[in-house]
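SAMPLE LOG
Freezer: B-3
Tube label: C17
Construct: single chain, 99 aa
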Amino acid sequence: MKNFIGDLNKAFESRVRLGMMSILMVNDYVDFGTLKEQLQITDGNLASHIAALEKLAYIEVRKQFIGKKPNTSYAATKQGKQAFAGHLDALEKLIKQSI
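STRUCTURE (predicted):
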């Protein structure tokens, strides 16, 4: 019997990163404020998790101005979507293995 726990992606072990990627998988772009509100975390906590996922090239950052106001939004990259889908697949296999 295969042990699927080894197939889990360490980048998504954090509940915040799991939540972030879940949101980004179903939205084209999500701004910082929306992520913060949906995840109910502090600015600093969100920023550190964004930096970690950006370093892995799992998310991309888009900075723009809306009117005269700066806006930063995020999207899952193709690589990030594949990694997250693989993580979810491993979770599903792990659950099925346990039943």
